[in-house]
Write a structure and sequence with these properties.
Strand order of the largest sheet: 2-3-1-4
Structural class: alpha+beta
Strand content: 25-35%
Distance between the termini: 23 Å
Helix content: 25-40%
CATH superfamily of the largest domain: BMC (bacterial microcompartment) domain
Largest sheet: 4 strands, antiparallel
Mean pLDDT: 89
Number of helices: 6
CATH class of the largest domain: Alpha Beta
Amino acid sequence: MKHPAIGIIETNSIARGIVVHDVMLKKAKVDVVQSNSICPGKYVVFIAGLTADVEEAMADGLHYGGQAVVDHLIIPNVSETIFPAIIGGNQDLEIEAVGIVETFSVASAVLLADLAVKRTNVRLLDLRLAQGLGGKAYFIITGEIHAVQESTDHVHEASEPGMLTNIEVIPAPHDGLKNAIGGRLA
């Protein structure tokens, strides 16, 4: 899936999240990447399309979401590695040092993953969005140890207060872990 822009709205109400989904689709020509309830009782709507369309849909979605909005984002020039990482992981990548970033929201994980791959020479292996994670999200990057460390430092600095759960860096992962990551950890 190739789109220049993405938008995400996460709500603390399933019913309001469904309304947000409807409003966004009625407002502009966007594709829905994901729209579903997530634990614990939240709802996420993830759209993609042309930048102007995404911005227009997001404005209405945020208006109708109101106080139910937990987190949101718009990325006008999203990294082309985001969609493959969500859909099935970038399993054909050589795994070097590994960085794992865990967040409390879907929006913050996507935003930080995009930032990580744009600011340093790392590759995005996986991006998991809340399903079976208690509403959390995480992503895994790989590259040379200095690049992974620099990337996780950027992520830490850029994260919104209270949205970052944990960051871990593994300089030389065991082959068993490399195989597990390549096969998408549960």
